[in-house]
Amino acid sequence: MKFARLGDSGREQPAVQPGGPESNGKWYSLAGLTADIDGAFLEGGGVARVRDALAAGNLAEIPDAGALRVGTPLARPGAVVGIGLNYAGHAAESGAAIPEVPVVFLKPSNTVAGPFDEAPLPPSSAKYDWEVELAVVIGRRASYLASADEAADCVAGYVLANDLSERDYQLPGAAGQWVKGKSLPASTPLGPWFVPAADLDPSALRLRTWVNGELRQDSSTADLIFDVPAVVHHLSQFMVLEAGDVILTGTPEGVALSGRFPYLQDGDVLELEAEGLGRQRQVLRRTAPVLPRS
């Protein structure tokens, strides 16, 4: 199954596609089952209820689904947690040692944006970068988990993410300022859809990024240093993860930080893809600076 939220920003309606050839591209409304796709829906057995409703033929088709904007597949999460340097190739191109434990940072949840929304380029940004990522969606409260197996049971499913990052804000200085480089408006496009954990094996998904049609990243989640259960288990030792929270598991090599490619510019077109999780497209537009009041 694929879950999506369709419609204008702030007015999205929850929808589902059965998946497989029988779906024929049709989306079905979840009206009557849930007001939104959020933590309460996931924790309360919403995915199972939708499966039953589809099997019973109780959901109405959304006839104009293809004409609607595609929003984030999840309502605004309570937390967005990032894992840095989680691919050996990306660590090497960043000039960093392979981490012995996960590198963790937080992103404000107001950075989440739709997969096809215009991406604002910060007014003074000179080193804005792309990062295709597998994102994990938490399905129930996770705290001080005892094992990776227990952590895997807390995963509701997966989405495609782009962790847009401003390297000049993130890295200079003795300690670096990762949060500054990761907190810019609309810098976490998610989607186009959410896939339940039972419907997708995340262990070897192909991840790719194109800039203006030229391939930049081409890798697989098989190269993750810390896999999904390991990441969830580790995080649970330091924070409470709640249903609907999103974890960005890291990006593979092929970013502009490597020095092999130019950073993003006004008008550039980004396309990202994860096997089984769809494709994103963002056009970069420079944000005008805020002028002082006269």
Can you tell me about this structure?
By secondary structure, this protein is an alpha+beta fold. Helix content is 15%, strand content 28%. Strands 5-4-16-9-10-13 form a 6-stranded mixed sheet. A hairpin with a 6-residue loop joins β1 and β2.
Radius of gyration over C-alpha positions, nearest whole angstrom: 19 Å
Task: Report the portion of residues in β strands.
Answer: 25-35%
| Secondary structure: helix percent | 10-25%
| Adjacency order of strands in the biggest sheet | 5-4-16-9-10-13
Helix-strand string? EEEHHEHEEEEEHEEHHEEEEHEEE
Poorly predicted ranges: none
Write down the overall geometry. Answer: globular
The major pleated sheet works out as:
6 strands, mixed
Extended strand count: 18
Mean pLDDT: 94
Structural class: alpha+beta
First-to-last CA distance: 55 Å
Number of helices: 7
Compile the SSE list and pairings.
Blueprint: E1 2-6, E2 13-17, E3 28-29, H1 39-43, H2 46-56, E4 80-84, H3 88-93, E5 103-107, E6 112-113, E7 119-121, E8 128-129, E9 132-138, H4 148-152, E10 155-162, E11 165-166, H5 167-170, H6 178-181, E12 188-189, E13 195-196, E14 206-211, E15 214-220, H7 228-236, E16 246-248, E17 269-274, E18 278-286
Parallel strand pairs: 4-16, 6-12, 7-18
Antiparallel strand pairs: 1-2, 2-3, 4-5, 8-11, 9-10, 9-16, 10-13, 14-15, 14-17, 17-18
At a glance:
The chain is an alpha+beta fold and 294 residues long. The protein has seven helices and 18 strands.
